[in-house]
Every structure is written in structure tokens, then in C-alpha cells.
Amino acid sequence: MGRFVARRILYMFAVILVVSAITFGLMHAVPGGPFEREKPLPPEIIANLEKRYHLDEPLLMQYGRYLYEIFIPRIDSNRPGLSLENDFLINIRLGESTWFHWMNFGPSYSSRSRTVNDIFRDNLPVSFLLGIMALTVAILLGVPLGIIAALKQNTIFDYFGMSVAIFGVSVPVIVLGPLLIWIFGVTLRWLPPTGWGSKPPYVMGVFPSTMGWDYWKHAIMPAVALGLGSSAIIARLTRASLLQVVREDYIRTARAKGLKERLVLTRHALKNSLIPVVTVLGPMFAALVTGTFVTEITFGIPGMGRYFVTSITNRDYPVIMGTILLYAVFLVVANLIVDLLYAFLDPRIRYE
């Protein structure tokens, strides 16, 4: 297991490096630049801006500089005399996000007063927590619906569960979000229609300092709107996989030995049937926690989705690179966790 994890970590660094190279090349291959406006700037100003941000250098040199700035740890110059270990411990005690503190994603070309680190520090925790809540909603709703639909195949429970799944897949967030706002925010006035219940700074760079009812009532509608579509996918996968597993020979053997139906399902059938579900949770997790543009715009949530889409139109190279690299990190880490969960769900799977 240890060798497998070490090998996968090395592969992760290779994947992130390849993703960064491809993204960097594609960004500069697209016509246009970060300082082109509807009202053109004088050539002298554009030349000065490109020199300031090293955009006048060859692409290979720009890429090398970018990697150096990101991956070489550094100590805050405002606190001289600190070692990396002491700086890490001080950041932990202060509740700061140490990887934001060490890694320099560069300045933002469109938000001159903020760096990419500032944008991530203020907005990424919102998207991350919203994604975690949406994934929780998807699992808590999708897995039970799939199990009930499989165990009660071709009954009203099966039809109801699959109807909910089809509804979740068919109705996009751009429709479901305003519908929830109209019902629960405007008509019933149970929940606030827009906004988010926390503001920076965040504890450990991720968690809000307070998570009372005011925080949760802002998160309920966007989490449900974002998680319903994923719950539909999970429900359909759970139903199909469980129907296949319950027809396997070892399930019939367990029943023939006189085991109770509940034990047969929980100890033998359910764990193996969750393997396809766990497989899709990796990419689903990465997609949800890095920000969803439509959900954040609909509910007025200050997450990363809005900044990422705006950075593409503005050719804000550092924000584009940083967001895609974060997505790649979330994706490869989630896939590693999924691979490790395989051995827990199916004892026949070994990594040595």
C-alpha cells in the first residue's frame, strides 16, 4: 500500500506539470492579450505593462518563472528570521492557509489591487464549502434512493426514486435555483434568497469562524440546487450496480447459508455495489468544490466560479492558471482517495 501511494503521488506531480504546460501553452495561443481593451491603450503603456509582468520574455522563460514562483517555498519578508518550520507553525496558530502563504500564484491582471492568492483566500473557501455541502446532499439523497429503487424494483418506490433522478438530471441549476428562490425565499420567506453567511478571514483558510443558523440558512438552497443533479447520477448508478450485485453467486450462497436479508445486503451486496458510485465521486468532488458559475451567480455567492469565467474573457492568465491547477490537484487527490477506498469496499482488490 505504501509503495502504491508513493508511486501515485509521483504520478500526481507529473500530471499537474503536464496540465500546467498545456494550459500555459493554450492560453498564449489564443488571439488577444490581457491588456487589450475596447478603447486601445497606447503602445508605450502596453509595452510597460508587458515588461512589468514579464510578458515580453520568451514563453519558455515565462513558464519556468511561473513554476519557480509557485513551487519554491518562501518566507514572508515582513517576518524576517523565521525558518520554514517556524513559519508553518505560526501560520497554523494564526489560522492562516499556509499553502496560500508560501505559493505565489502571481498578480491578477484585471484586479490590480489584488493578487491571485488574495482572490483564492477570499473566494475559494466559499466554493469549497458549498461543494462539500452539495456533495453531502448528493450522497445522502442519491444512495438511499438508489438502494430503495433496487430493492423494490418495478414498484412504486422504484418509479418514484427514478422519477426524482430523472428530474434532477433534466432540470438544470439555472432553472431550479430561481424556482427555489421564488418558493422558499420570496413566497414563504423561510430562507434568504441570496448571499452567503460568512466572510473572510477563515479559520485555517477554509472554515468560517462561526457556523450558526445564519450561515446554514444561506447555504441550504444553493447546496440543494447544486447537489440535486449529482444525486440523480448517484441514484441511478447505485440502483444499476446493486441490481447486478444481488444476482451474483456469492449473494445466493450467503442467502443459502441462512443469513438474514439485512446482513446479506449490508455486509455483502451494498459494499461491492458502491464501487461504481465511489468512482464517480472523485471527479464530482473536484467539479463541485472548485466553484460552479451558474449556482454562484444565481444565489449571489462570492465564490470562485465568477472570477474564473471573468478571467477567461479578460485573458487574466494567472487566475486561469491558478484555478486550473487547483482543479487538477483536487481531481488527482480525489482519485487517489477513490483508489484507496476500493480496497475497503472490495477485499479482493490489492495494491501490492
Keywords, separated by commas or semicolons:
352 residues, 15 helices, 0% strand, mainly alpha
Outline the structure in words.
With 352 residues, the chain is an all-alpha fold. The longest helix has 36 residues, at 116-151. The protein contains 15 helices and no strands.
Strand content: under 5%
- Secondary-structure element sequence? HHHHHHHHHHHHHHH
> How many β-strand stretches?
0
Q: How much is the average pLDDT?
A: 81
Cα Rg: 24 Å
What separation lies between the terminal Cα atoms?
6 Å
Secondary structure class reads: mainly alpha
Q: How many H/I helical runs?
A: 15
Instruction: Please estimate the helix content.
Output: over 70%
Can you give me a brief rundown of this structure?
The N and C termini lie close together (6 Å). The longest helix is centred in the middle third of the chain and has 36 residues, at 116-151.
Give me the secondary-structure topology:
Blueprint: H1 2-29, H2 43-52, H3 59-71, H4 84-94, H5 98-102, H6 116-151, H7 156-170, H8 173-187, H9 213-245, H10 249-256, H11 261-273, H12 275-289, H13 293-298, H14 304-313, H15 317-345
Helix pairs in contact: 1-15, 6-7, 6-9, 6-12, 7-9, 8-9, 9-11, 9-12, 10-11, 12-15, 14-15
